[in-house]
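Intended use. Records like the one below are meant for learning the mapping from a protein sequence to its folded structure. Do not use them to infer anything beyond what is encoded.
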Amino acid sequence: MKKTVALESGAWFKNYQEMPVLWIVPGVAVLGALLTILASKANRSGIAFFGSSLMQIGVILTAAVSMFPFIMPSISHPEMSLTVWDATASENTLTIMFYAACFFVPIVLLYTLWSYFKMFGRLDAKFIEDNNHTAYQETNMFYLTWFLVCFCHLFCCICYGKIEKTGKFDE
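Structure written out for the chain above:
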């Protein structure tokens, strides 16, 4: 895809000039900051948390709206800047990732939910004191962890071609 990129003064505000409704986005950041300050002074931690979250969302979206369509603009070589259209994957890749997400996200959510219900209410001071001799303090867990780390490292080295068939590392 051919693209034309040029350096312009005031380009950060171009999107706001073309679509003035976008000024709402930095307004959300300012509103969130004010809400955080007022709620903190009133000792309302829940509202302060909401306000700070709103402020962070507003700041991130302000940067996104200001930079659009650029993701990583280049000052030295503007034509080499990464744009939204350059960064997108092919339709085939997006389709595969969609089905993979449809399959794996429910599994992760179900596992997280199951873990939460299994562990809910089990850990208290008495439980920790009664079970201070668990596998975390035994050497078997250390050796198992060390073995797994070494195995994974060796596997990665072999997969990426850093070990020759002779067993020596490439220089």
